[in-house]
């Protein structure tokens, strides 16, 4: 897993220990190419690209992700690339741009059940917004694999977990991981 776009997030989700700022340093314009060259040299067959939220960038960083995917696929066409993304503020054009970049797996974490969203996530994130991102990614490219994750142990009920699973399945999310996130 490789983190793009720096180490400073523009959001403040309550579960996360990543540093935050409303004005993080600008992204490195050469990062997509440098990242692709490094990954291609490692000889791996699968890589996950992820990032902090970058609400300070007009497209949320989707273009940076897409550029990295395209560069990597050019250097190593057989590699499978998963991008674990932010919600890009619900910008479905940003989602489509990344989904059509050559990406193999579009991942976006819904994080928690509907009733716990405001308690757990930054107010700019939301349950329906996350569902919209995943639905758009699936619709953009035939055969696109979509993936999400739910954190457990935050106070949700079994019924709420089942409903979240049903909501994700209703928009054809292919893979769901369940886990816990403990702030360090």
Structure description:
There is one protein chain. With 184 residues, this protein is of the alpha/beta class. The chain has one domain (2-180): Alpha-Beta Barrel (TIM Barrel). The protein is 35% helix and 18% strand. The strands form two sheets. Strands 1-4-5-6-7-8 form a six-stranded parallel sheet. A two-stranded parallel sheet has the order 2-3. Helix 1 packs parallel to helix 2 and helix 2 (62-75) runs parallel beside helix 3 (92-99). 36% of the residues are buried. The mean pLDDT is 94.
Structure summary:
With 184 residues, the chain is α/β, with parallel strands linked by helices.
Keyword list:
single chain; 184 residues; alpha/beta; TIM Barrel; 8 strands; 18% strand; globular; metal ion binding; EC 2.8.1.8; iron-sulfur; lipoate synthase activity
Strand count: 8
Strand order, sheet with most strands:
1-4-5-6-7-8
- CATH fold name: TIM Barrel
Radius of gyration: 16 Å
Question: What is the CA-CA span between the terminal residues?
Answer: 19 Å
Which class do the helix and strand fractions yield?
alpha/beta
CATH class: Alpha Beta
The CATH homologous superfamily name equals Aldolase class I
Count structural domains: 1
- What is the typical, i.e. mean, pLDDT? 94
How much of the sequence lies in strands comes to 15-25%
The oligomeric state of the chains shown is: single chain
- What composes the largest sheet? 6 strands, parallel
Low-confidence stretches: none
Helix content: 25-40%
What is the second-level CATH architecture? Alpha-Beta Barrel
DSSP helix count?
6
Instruction: Name the shape in a single word.
Output: globular
Provide the succession of SSEs: EEEHEHEHEHHEHE
């Amino acid at each position: 897993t490789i983190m793009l776009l720096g180490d400073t997030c523009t959001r403040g989700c309550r579960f996360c220990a990543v540093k935050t700022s409303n004005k993080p340093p600008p992204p490195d314009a050469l990062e997509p190419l440098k990242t692709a060259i490094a990954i291609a040299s490692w000889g791996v067959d699968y890589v996950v690209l992820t990032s902090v939220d970058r609400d300070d960038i007009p497209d949320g960083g989707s273009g940076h992700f897409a550029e990295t995917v395209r560069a990597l696929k050019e250097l190593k066409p057989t590699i499978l690339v998963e991008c674990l993304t932010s919600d890009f503020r619900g910008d479905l054009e940003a989602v489509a741009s990344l989904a059509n970049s050559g990406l193999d797996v579009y991942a976006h974490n819904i994080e928690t059940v509907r009733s716990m969203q405001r308690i757990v996530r930054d107010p700019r994130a939301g349950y329906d917004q996350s569902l919209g991102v995943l639905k758009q990614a699936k619709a953009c490219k035939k055969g696109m694999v979509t993936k999400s994750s739910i954190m457990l142990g935050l106070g949700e009920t079994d019924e709420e977990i089942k409903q979240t699973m049903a909501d994700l399945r209703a928009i054809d999310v292919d893979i769901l991981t369940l886990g816990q996130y403990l702030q360090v």
